[in-house]
């Protein structure tokens, strides 16, 4: 017994040291991943710049990043870029709320209720494959050329990935957790709040990422028709007047917004779903 008691502190210290080493290694890998996320776009731009200067690519169609950046500074200085970016972000945020929140509740409800799933799932299966660009004329017909059609397009883009992934997330929950809630006579709201929502969170976050990406694509598409501001409008207008650098500025700003959204949503997922294997 004496030997066991004497060795206990040493064992405890060794376990703590191993945990500290694992934590340190994990933090180093995390930092390396984040650094690489920023390095890879920079390397791509450098390769692009060198290829343009050496004449490997035609600068009439692929202007050097230095020229694009000079145009970017000009658009920032005269306020054009801020005005168009803000318009697109406002439509994007409203559309994601309008489409994403109902999709979240509907998806979880479908996962919890087989009759509801039997009713709604065929409707989603029929409408989801329809190209979203083909819906734009219909949205313009219903909502007109104003803000409504743009917000509706973003809402459609956010709706389907979130509702599909939310349903899949609830269906992936181990049945024993649902049985425990039923055994203790939990209400529908309690089951939703304490079992379905937390259990489906990894799938929900995946749906939000996919929905946000598709919504960005659709807001640019919607702004190319019947808009007088927005990044999509700026890209289309630049094409019409052959202002190639301005067109690339709009494209790269949308890409940068998508990049920032990915980082923010990944951090949010790591905070909300620390138990996920992907984290």
Question: What layout of secondary structure does this protein have?
Answer:
Blueprint: H1 2-53, H2 65-77, H3 80-112, H4 114-127, H5 132-143, H6 147-171, H7 175-183, H8 188-223, H9 231-240, H10 244-272
Would you give an account of this structure?
The protein is built from 10 helices and no strands. It has 279 residues and is mostly helical. The protein has one domain: MetI-like fold.
Explain briefly what this protein structure is.
The chain is mostly helical and about 280 residues long.
Task: Please supply descriptive tags for the structure shown above.
single chain; 279 residues; mainly alpha; MetI-like fold
From the spread of the alpha carbons, the general shape counts as flat
CATH topology: MetI-like fold
Q: Mind telling me which CATH architecture this is?
A: Orthogonal Bundle
Q: Helical region count?
A: 10
Helix content: over 70%
**Structural class per helix/strand content?**
mainly alpha
Cα Rg: 25 Å
List SSEs in N-to-C order: HHHHHHHHHH
Biggest sheet features = none
Give the name of the CATH superfamily.
Answer: MetI-like
